[in-house]
Specification:
Length: 252
């Protein structure tokens, strides 16, 4: 299968601290991958480095996406190329209503440009799909939103932008049953409507049961220490990360 995302020998960190060490990871178009690992392993850092967050410096290796080397590209170029990252802590933007924000990010994408009326219809459609109250759209972006409401915003963005690759960083953590079902439905619709690829960073094995997982990757201390089929998730669910942590110690 042709690879959508290919990460080769990637090392990265902040100015003070190396965090990722020689990461190799590939995701094919339309595939669902899961990235697991203990807290502090470097999972979020990998997501941010794929997105081009300038906080992190790449010190080795390459990232290519859709046949192009994007290692030195700016985050907005990566976003235009079709990469989407949901942040663990979304920013609050006072004064900007959610609806205007969604309209702006959609208009920035030439292939998604549309009339105001069609856009309104599309947003309405997505709100229905996600069982979301449309009153929500006039509120200021993320200001005072609950954890679950912020996730709904993410799912709205995901379904509007239809990226080729969505990296969802613990987008399902700390959610109540209702919010979790919104996230599940959003992911399902994304998979179905645009056959988008997913890189899910999660500790929640229940949300994964509904997804058809192609590959599971395990990160410990900035190294990818294991890769396997979906059944690896059940193994981790039962046995935790201990055996991988031992493996990573003996690797050094
Ligand atoms: P995970 O998402 O797997 O829990 P992170 O990627 O958030 O792990 O963090 C990996 C390690 O890198 C941690 O030790 C964390 O403190 C450190 N780290 C991540 N981002 C920064 C940063 N911007 N500045 C300093 N240290 C960071
Ligand atoms: Mg974490
Ligand atoms: Mg994290």
């Amino acid at each position: 299968m042709s690879q959508l995302l290919t990460i080769s020998g990637l090392s990265a960190g902040t100015d003070e601290k190396p965090i990722l060490h020689g990461i190799d990871l590939s995701v094919g178009a339309g595939e669902t991958h899961v990235l697991m690992g203990p807290n502090g392993a470097g999972k979020s850092t990998l997501g941010h480095v794929i997105m081009g967050d300038p906080v992190y410096k790449v010190t080795g290796g390459t990232i290519s996406f859709d046949g192009e080397d994007i290692t030195d590209k700016t985050p907005d170029k990566r976003s235009l190329a079709g990469i989407f990252l949901s942040y663990q802590a979304p920013v609050e933007v006072p004064g900007v209503p959610l609806y205007s924000f969604l309209r702006t990010i959609t208009q920035m994408r030439p292939e998604l440009k549309t009339t105001a009326r069609k856009f309104r219809e599309r947003v309405g459609e997505i709100c229905d799909q996600l069982d979301m109250d449309q009153g929500f759209l006039t509120r200021e972006l993320n200001v005072g939103f609950s954890g679950g409401e912020k996730k709904k915003v993410e799912m709205l963005q995901l379904l509007l932008l239809q990226p080729k690759l969505a990296i969802l960083d613990e987008t399902d953590s700390g959610l109540d049953v209702d919010a979790l079902s919104v996230v599940s439905r959003g992911i399902e619709a994304y998979r179905k409507e645009c056959d988008g690829a997913l890189l899910m960073i999660t500790h929640n094995t229940r949300i994964l049961e509904k997804l058809d997982v192609d590959r599971t990757h395990v990160m410990v201390k900035g190294h990818l220490v294991a890769e396997g089929p979906a059944s690896l998730i059940d193994d981790i669910d039962r046995n935790g990360f201990a055996r991988f942590e031992q493996a990573s110690t003996s690797q050094k």
